[in-house]
Design a protein that fits this description.
The complex is a heterodimer of chains A (about 650) and B (about 525). By secondary structure, chain A is mainly alpha-helical. Helices cover about 70% and strands about 5% of the residues of chain A. Chain A has 25 helices and three strands. A three-stranded mixed β-sheet of chain A has the order 1-2-3. In chain A, α3 runs antiparallel to α4 and α15 packs antiparallel against α20. The radius of gyration of chain A is 31 Å and the shape is globular. Chain B is mainly alpha-helical. Chain B has 21 helices and four strands. In chain B, a hairpin with a 2-residue loop joins β1 and β2. Chain B starts with a helix and ends in a 44-residue tail after the last helix. The chains are: A mainly alpha (about 650), B mainly alpha (about 525). The interface between A and B is large, with 94 and 102 residues.
Chain lengths: ~650, ~525
Amino acid sequence: MQSTALVSLIPLFPLVGAIVLGLVALFSSHREVGPDKGLVGFLACLGPIMSCIVATMLFADLRTNPQGFVHVAFTWFSVGSLHVPAEFWVDRLSGVMIMIVTFVGSLIHIYSVGYMQHERGFTRFFAYLNLFTFSMLVLVLAKNLPLMFLGWEGVGACSYLLIGYYFTETEKAQAANKAFIVNRIGDLGFLIGMFVLFWYLGTKGVWTVDFATIRENAHLITPAMAGVIGILLFVGACGKSAQIPLHVWLADAMAGPTPVSALIHAATMVTAGVYMVARMAALYNLAPSTSHVIAIVGMTTAIMAATIAITQHNIKKVLAYSTVSQLGYMFAAVGAGAYSAGVFHLFTHAFFKALLFLGAGAVIHAMHHEEEMDNYGGLWKKLPFTATTMLIGCVAIAGIPPLAGFFSKDAILFAQWQQGWYWLWGVGLFTSFLTAFYMFRMWFLTFLGTPRDHHAYDGAHEGPAVMNVPLAILAAGTLVVGFLGLPEAMGGSKFAAWLAPAVGAHAHLPADLSGKALEAATYGLHQTEYLLAAFAILGAVAGITLAFLRYGGQATPVFGRARGLFALFQNRYFFDHINDAVFVRGSIDFLGWGFRHVVDRWIIDGPIRGLPTLYYKFSDTVRVMQSGAVRTYAYAMLLGTLAILFVVMSGWSLLRF
Amino acid sequence: MSFLLSLLIFLPLLAGLAILFFGDEDEQGFARWGSLVVAIANGLLSIGLLAGAERVAGGIQLASFEEKRPWIDALGIQYFLRTDGMSTFLIILATACTAIAIAASWRIVSEKARIYYGCMLLLSGGMIGVLAAADLFCFYVFWEVMLIPAFFLIGVFGGEQRRPAVIKFVIYTMVGSLLMLIGITYVGWQHFVLRGSWTFAIDALYGLPFRDGIAMWPFLTFLAAFGIKAALFPLHTWLPAAYSQAPMPVTFLLSAVMAKLGIYGLLRVALPIFPEAAQVAMPVLAALATAGVVYAAFVALAQEDARLVVAYASISHLGVILLGVFSLTHQAVAGSVFHMVGHAVTTGALFLLVGFMAERRGSTLIADWGGAAKTVPVFATFFMLFMLAAVGLPGLTAFIGEFMIFLGAFKQHATATAIAATSIIFGAAYMLWWYQRTMFGPVQHDGVARMADLNMREGALLMPLVLAIIGLGVFPQPMLSAIAPSTAAYLKHFGVAADPAPTVSPTKVGPPAHGAVTHGEAGDAAPAEHSTQGIH
């Protein structure tokens, strides 16, 4: 590994931006007219773009230097065997991540300058957004677990601040709270996993929290212990990446401005869990049953979120559940040991989901902040550019070749099949059908048919260039990045080869084959790939067709009350109802109230509060003895002294300590 | 300066007495300006404790300050003061917080100013004395000197419910003090029995082979005194009463510094003098600390008054520090000492803000607030920072202490730590919920709509705390490295050796196991054991 200070510069740029913008926002908070929006916008985009330039330089060098670059900025904290430097590391894995974060991040910053133009807290928004970019870069560049945790919690805090950006609305502020607190449940698992790992490796003579050292010494960990640590860390991943049962915050997180949903709640932060699992690949490789659990949780989340997405009316909620579902795919991949496939889907998803969210943002912007699809319809005529770019995103996520989503999702499904997890493959395939259905349902409801809110429709118009250019760039990316991850049958994945030094090569064939046997196995492998891909395409086409039949032509689609199974979907499987009734109310109204009013007041405090009363009673009693006769006092004193003396003399041995 | 410690103690003590006795009854200018000047001067002087600190590998090492004079020869009592890594930063904290507390009292106290400001200085001098004392008798004297002005500050200047609050405070404190006095007498006498001479020098009392085994009951007398001060569950109920009734600057000082003295007493006196008894009791004590962490978090959730939210939050956080104190690992103990400062600035800042709330709105009831972020954005920004610090956000100071405590305690009390660590969830719950109901949502009260934002004086008071919260969160290592040698010396009393050195990245230890998984390229790790090849 080569040491270069350039690595530390990457997170530094947005941090400086955040500090400058934060101070500007603070000092101008009482001004009627805020600081110049052009200047603020320029400053805001500067940090991420500079980071992107440095990241690209280092990324290019990773071709010849697969072990990557490190830099120790300073010692964060260190006591005894625990040594936590502020050390940043660009390797092939974090290299991909910083490219996503800085590139997509820069585009979303630029888009936001247009989108947020009319908001009051313009500067504050960009201060948060820059701070988020800094935290996310720390998360992915961190070379040790505590530093990753800094980024991990930092992105959570920024997410909290940005979800609650419109803080005068109570519901949005509550959504922000919910995101932070649910994430904290996951963070508890992350922390404890870190502690177990640290002390356990310590008993083996390795005192470290450093990723590279953990990777080198992972073989010292027993499979059972690796499973325990793996599950604990995965609990953290569940929180950040919205997997069952900690997925409940992400849909509510749509309360934030739409560019925030695109950057934080689709492209970057929510993928941190997947990244962390890939980062700890050496550990998860030792624990196959834990990995299997991860795949099952992932696939279950994928289908659950997809079923919810088909019943949503709010355009951002559809995309939110779609994100949960796609994250489930990613976990299914890393659970199957196909780390490169998981990260590849993360990579392509960042493009098309950011594109879809920004597109949705353009629609919402055009429709005066109307987010319900019930009031959309026929917008194709008004917003042809947005409709086209969103269509590209929909085709990509539906899994139609050769767009990005097809190849990445195909690799994940194939990994399930290869593991012999045919059930998971089947569920994944069905989810892919649902995905195609709900995405095109969304697109048809928005852009086809006749307008359902004529007033908003009449005023709708395309956004400014500053919003359209990022859309165009993301759409172009969505069209091409899929080719980086071709299946074996079509020449193999460049992406997987790139990641191999960081997460290990994912062998598709047994290593001990040769000659004819290898040829036959390779043939079989390729035939299976083609066959499974055909299934996936069929599923996607079926989904799109069904969506068209149901929503494509109809002038006014029916938005009836969902019944039966659909009621279950529409109510999000009642997760929120149960959580609220059991955990929230239980904590506040039962434990909190009971501890406060019963335990603290009566059980602990009761006897103490009784003491003064007892004291006053006692003093009332002894007051009677205050006769004022000096001789009585003298007798009493003499008697008392004698008694004490007696006790002291005779009882010295008893009082021996 | 060989008399720096005495100066730090007696400057506020004597100035406090002077203000108390010579202050004018009606004229408050002399009392408050005089006390402010003294407090600031003392704060600047305390920085002198860092003089002589040297840069060493991995951090800094403090110079030790010491003063020793005979006092009562017959009982071996000395006027003996000394500082080390554990006490130095707490003394600086105490002087700085005194200055902030006095400056924050400007508007709050108008009557009986000489009593108020005099008591503040006496309280401060007592606390610094406790921290500097190296003789147990001196320790006790300063302990009492500290408590008496605290009674007056709560009892005279407190809120409507101050009478029950101060009675509870007095009862708890008196019981604790008396028990401690018995314990002190016992250890001095034991030294006489075992070593043939009377002494109360604390380090001479370490490692006494007590006659009656582990000496559990004398240990418990000290534990009672210090446990009450540190609000160890279930000895905590005096704290919310006192904190919510005292004037906010006093609460600020009590929460930032005085509560820490209980923890400091445990580390300096109770635990190392009775290591065997302490080790027997530790599982129980860790369980109590953990119970307090979770219990107080839930009670905080059910509060309607901001003062009580922060008071219970404070109990919960003190429980975390106590958990660290009751664990015998370098990370946990150093983390506890560090977190005493971290918790002081974080909780202290919140109490100051609550004081500003009361000044503005005349009420700290959560229901009287809501939507204030719109009218007082600067206030809301500071509040947000302190709130995030209190929930232990990494990069801010409280995280460092909590992380090291949890990590260190986990080795010894895995279950208790896992339960205590749930405070990162519940702590976030009550803090965020409080913030949301106070600052977010629509403005519903005229009083909130007409409120003035933070002024320059208030901002200036908060600034040192902001700098400490961020500075010690990002660069904790200089202070940690200065604390660590003292905590390592403390751990020697329990037979805890120095930690093995951290493994330098990336190093491969031992031969690869059979069937080890390949991770792509093996990296540039050296195959030899404990090789230090790498990037450093």
